[in-house]
Amino acid sequence: MTDDNRPVFAYKIGLLAPSRVGKSTLIASLLTEGQQMLAQDASVLLHSADRPTANRLAATYNMVTGALKARVFMPGLVPSTPDPSYFHLLLEARGQDLRIRFDILDYPGGWLEDGGAGTGHEQRWNECEEFLADSSVLLLPIDSVLVMDSGEEYAPLLSSHLAVFQIKQVILRWAKNRRERQDEPALIIFCPVKCETYLSDSGSLQNQAAQLRERITDQFSEVLEAVREAAPHASIRYLPIDTFGCVELVSARWTPHTTSPGGLALVPKYRVRPPGRIVRKGLDDLISLLCRQLVDTARTQSERTTTWRRTTAAYSRNHAEVREGFFRDLWLNLNGERDRRRRVAAQDEGLLAESERTTQSLFDVLAALAARQTGTRLHHLS
Question: Which end of the chain is more exposed for a tag (fewer CB within 10 A), N or C?
């Protein structure tokens, strides 16, 4: 598609998670970390696509950094998302009229758990479901503290708090859509968040990376099986992410919570490791993975457009210059038809040249992104 006469490739990224996981924080982190990471590369730039997105991301960032300054961090103090809102991020090639837009939908996580019925927003949740089902990429943020520190006594509540059944239903619809559009991206990323306490490369004294991955794949085994059966061509990745990188879990206690499954919610409390500087391990791999997947898809689409425009331009030029006999050629010159055909041919050749430039730019951006090696946290589940 085009916007302001510049080519724009737009892709939907769906976040699929219940409440209190940190979807908004993850979105804000994608932009801030993406800007820092890509600033080292002269070929690409990531930024907010509009003012509402910039304002929402700034508010989330300030809220989180302010909470960390207190040295004792409780995620529950960060307000949850009250209404659906869209975030639009732009990946641009420097010096090129080329943009790739990521459209991300944030919504109240509780709507996933009850379909919006509990708040009277069934129709609005249906619209969110349509966005998720139509997304090129699904991100599944998973609360690692819930998975690792819920305790044996409360193990029966875990699937309900993770919303495994509800996630499976949304993914089945997504998989059907991806199967019908096999020329489009089909990527699911399981992203355990708040992993600082469990991974040694974060500065933690323990390394429970294998246990975390094993427990998540066990909890979501039916979801993984459903994707493999419904959309076998889909890529499934596992990538644990440190939400802040400078916190350590102090305690995780179950407390009464009327709207949570079983009437209970697991409330974590963290201490902030000095000097309290945010270092989000794993997020750079997530940004690279998203960018490479969607740039590669845009390249494929651009190549397809270029092939079609090359055929069109060749036909137009041949039609403009073909000789049809002395008297017919004379008439075409006198009535201006020959000039009209040549203008059409020139326009089609201009579109072809533009398409070739776009394709080359996408090749260049993809090469720059591919040059970065992914870390050891990223695993293939398909």
Answer: N
CB of 138 closer than 8 Å to CB of 189: yes
| Helix (H) / strand (E) containing 89 | strand 85-93
Quote the CA–CA distance of 32 and 89 in Å, as a whole number: 11
Q: Last residue of a domain, which of 283, 299, 315?
A: 299
The pTM of the whole model exceeds 0.85: yes
Q: Is residue 378 part of a domain?
A: no
Residues 168 and 216 reside in one and the same domain: yes
Q: Which of 279, 299, 319 is the last residue of a domain?
A: 299
Please report, for the chain, how many H helices and E strands are present, in that order.
12, 12
Domain that holds residue 198: 2-299
> How many Å apart are CA 86 and CA 103, to the nearest integer?
7
Distance CA 129, CA 120 (A): 16
Cα separation, 268 vs 144, in Å, equals: 11
- Contacts of 343-347 with CB under 8 Å at 24 or more apart are 344/316, 344/319, 344/320, 345/313, 345/316, 345/317, 345/319, 345/320, 345/321, 347/316
Strands 6-15 and 99-106: parallel
The Cα 148–Cα 345 span in angstroms is 64
Q: Quick one: 157 and 228 in the same domain?
A: yes
Q: What is the dihedral of CA 72, 201, 145, 89, to 10 degrees?
A: 80
DSSP characters for 301-314?
Answer: HHHHHHHHHHHHHH
Domain annotation covers residue 261: yes
